[in-house]
Amino acid sequence: MITHAKEAEKFNKDEARVDWHDDTLWFVRQKRDRMAHNIPEWEQLREKASQIKNHTLSNLDQYLIQFEKHALANGVHVHWAANAVEHNQIVFQIIQKHGFQKIVKSKSMLTEECHLNEFLISQGIEVIDTDLGERIVQLRHEPPSHIVLPAIHLKKEDVGETFHQHLGTEKGAKDPQYLTEAARQHLREKFIAADLALTGVNFAVAETGGIVVCTNEGNADMGAHLANVHIACMGIEKIIPRQADLSVFLRLLARSATGQPITTYSSHFLRPAPGKEMHIVLVDNGRTEQLARADFRNSLKCIRCAACFNTCPVYRRSGGHSYHTAVAGPIGSILAPNIDMRKYADLPFASTLCGSCSNVCPVKIDIHDQLWKWRQILAQEGHTGTAKATGMKLMSAVLSNPDIYRFAGSTGRWFLRHVPSLASNSLNPWFKQREMPEPPKESFRDWYMKNRKKPKGE
Amino acid sequence: MKVGLFIPCYIDQFYPNVGIATLELLEKLGCNVAFPLNQTCCGQPMANSGYSNLTKGCDANFVSNFSEFDYIVAPSGSCVLHIKEHLKDADHPEKAIQIRKRIFELCEFLTDVLKIDNLPASFPHRVGLHASCHGQRGLHLSSMSERNEPSFSKPGHLLSMVKGLDLVQAERPDECCGFGGTFCVFEEAVSVKMGKDRIGEHVQNQVEYITGGDTSCLMHLEGILKRQQSPIRIIHIAEILNSSISN
C-alpha cells in the first residue's frame, strides 16, 4: 500500500533535490508574506472571506438553485453530477453528441479528482492539458504535484529532457525562454485544432449565473474562445452569492497562491457567444457528505490557492506525489479521507500539527484542527493498524497509573543506561539518524523527593 | 499564590535538570510551588495519534493532582496546549474547566502573570531560539510570520533580560523542527530532514546553544546534533533564565 511516509522517504533519498524543492516553495511563501503584509486589512479580509463562505455553505442549496436559474436564462446548459463517474459521463456525452475527437483543457483540479483524462483517452479522445505545468506533467504521464504549480517538483533540466523527447527540442536545452517558446508553438497547434474546450471554475456567482476562471497564461480564454463548445466543470462549493463578493476573493486568491496582486487573467464567462455552446457541470462527489460532517464542513471553504502547501514544512520536504491524491498538502489531507477513509488514512498523520496552514489560509479553514479530528475518527474506525492501537493501549495503561509509570520509567532508564543497544539499533526509527537522549540516573521526581519533600507533619 | 508544578513525563524521565531549573526559578521569583507527586503525563501522545479515547486515565489523574492550585505551570508549551484544549473529566467537569483556564506555559506565566521585567540571570553565550509551534501558534507566545500582527516574543523578551546573552535570530524564525510527537517516528525521514534544516540555520549563525520552551523539540534537535557530532548544545529556556540567579 502506498503511504505518505514511504513515498516521502523515497523523495528524501536525494537531499539536494529536497533542499531545492523546499527553497523554491519557501520563496513563494515569502512572496505571499510580503504581499499579504502590504495590505493592512489583510486579517479582516480573511475574516470577511471566511464569513461569506460560511454563509454560502449554510445556504448552499438555495444559491445553487439560484445559480442554475440564472445560468439557464443566460443560455448555458447546466448539468448535475452526483459523483466522478457521472461527471465523466456527462462530459463524454457532450463530446460524443458532436462527434468531437480533440479537446483542450485548462485549470481543473476537479477533473484530476474525477480522473477524466484517463477516461476520455480510453474512449479514444485526444485530451490536451494547456496550462504549461499541467502539459509538462501530462507528457511525463505523471499527476500534478501541486494544485497551482503542477510541475514544481521538476527542474528546468527535467523539462528540457521531457520536451526533447516529446516536442523535439534540442537535447540538453534548459533555457526557460526556449522551452516555453517550444511549448507555446506546440500548444497553439492544439488550440487551433481543438473541437471543444474544458475549463475549471474558480468562482461561480449565484446572482448572475456567471463563472470566473483565473489564469496566468490566458489559456482558458484561448481554448474557450477558439472552440465551438465550452464545458466548465465545478465542484458545488465554488459558489459565491454576489458579483460584489468577487472583490474579496480575487484580492486574496493570487496573493495567497503566488504572491501576485491578482492573476494575469480573471476571465468572466456569462453566456455562450452567438452560434456557440456553453455547458456547466456541477459536481458533488462527496461534497454534500462533507457538508454534513460538522467538524469538516469548513474544508469546503477552500478556494484552492495552495498557500497551505507552500507554507507546510512537511509538504516542502516530501513532495506532492507522496500524498497520492489529486489535491495534496494539508488541505488535501483533510479532503481525501472524506472520499475514502481507508485509502487516505495516512494523510492526516502526515503533519506535525504546527498550525502554519491554518494561519495562511485566506478563508480561515481550521486545517490543523481538522487533521487532529480526522486522526480521532481514523483510529476509532480501525484505520490506523493494530500495532499502533496496541502500542497506544499499552502507553495509556502505563501513563494512567502513577505507580506503573514510575516503575516503567526507572526500569526503562536503567535498561537504556546499561543495555543501550535495546534502543540504539536499526529497528528504532528514532535512532536511524538521531542519537537517543541520555537517560539520567534519577527522575525529576526522585530529585524532588530527596531535595524538596518535607517529611510528613512539617 | 499557590503554583502547581507540572513536569511532563519525558522531562521527568530524561531531562530532570529542566524540572529543577523551572522549580528553582519559580521559587526564586517568590512563588509558593508544589510538585504533586502522582502526576504522569498530559495524554497528548495518545490524543495526537488519534486515541483521545484512551486519555481518560491521564485526564482523571491530572485533575486529581492539579485541581487545588491557583496556577499550574509547566516548562512545555505543547503539553500545556494539550491540557488547555482537551482536558476532560466526566466525573469532575468543573475542575477540568478550571485547570484549563489556570494552566500556563513557563514563559507566558513569567511575562503575563508574574509580569517579570528584570531577571538577575547571566548567560554569556551566543544563543539561537527555536520557537516551538504549539507554544508559538497554539498559545501565541510570539507573533507568527504568516499573520499580519505586531511583532512580539515572550521568550525573546525574557531572554533579553539575561546578562551577556547574545540572541541570534534564525532566518526562518518560526518553522517547525519536525518533532511532532509520534510524527518523529512514523515519518522519520521528513522529521529528520526538518530538524537538520532548522539546525543548519543555527550552525550558520554560529550559535553555541539552541534554546526553546519545549524540551521535546530540543530533544529531537539534540539527537541530530549529537549524531552530527556538532559542538552546539541544547538548553531549555528555564535553565538559561535560572542561571546565576542569586537570592
Automatic annotation (TrEMBL), chain A:
PROSITE patterns for the chain? 4FE4S_FER_2 (PS51379)
- A Pfam family matched by this chain, by name? Fer4_8
Give me any GO biological process, just one. lactate metabolic process
Mark the transmembrane ranges. none
UniProt KW keywords = 4Fe-4S, Electron transport, Iron, Iron-sulfur, Metal-binding, Repeat, Transport
Alphabetical list of InterPro entries matching this protein? 4Fe4S_Fe-S-bd, FTHF_cligase-like_sf, Helical_ferredxn, LUD_dom, LutB/LldF, LutB_C, NagB/RpiA_transferase-like
Q: Which GO terms describe its molecular function?
A: 4 iron, 4 sulfur cluster binding
Q: What is this protein called?
A: Lactate utilization protein B
TrEMBL record, chain B:
Identify a single GO molecular function assigned to this protein.
oxidoreductase activity
Q: Which domain of life is it from?
A: Bacteria
InterPro entries linked: Cys_rich_dom
Pfam families named among the record's database cross-references: CCG
A single Gene Ontology CC term:
cytosol
- Domain Cysteine-rich as annotated: residue spans: 3-84, 127-221
Task: Quote the PANTHER family the UniProt record gives.
Answer: LACTATE UTILIZATION PROTEIN A (PTHR30296:SF0), UNCHARACTERIZED PROTEIN YKGE (PTHR30296)
**What name does UniProt use for this protein?**
(Fe-S)-binding protein
Q: Name its species.
A: Xanthocytophaga agilis
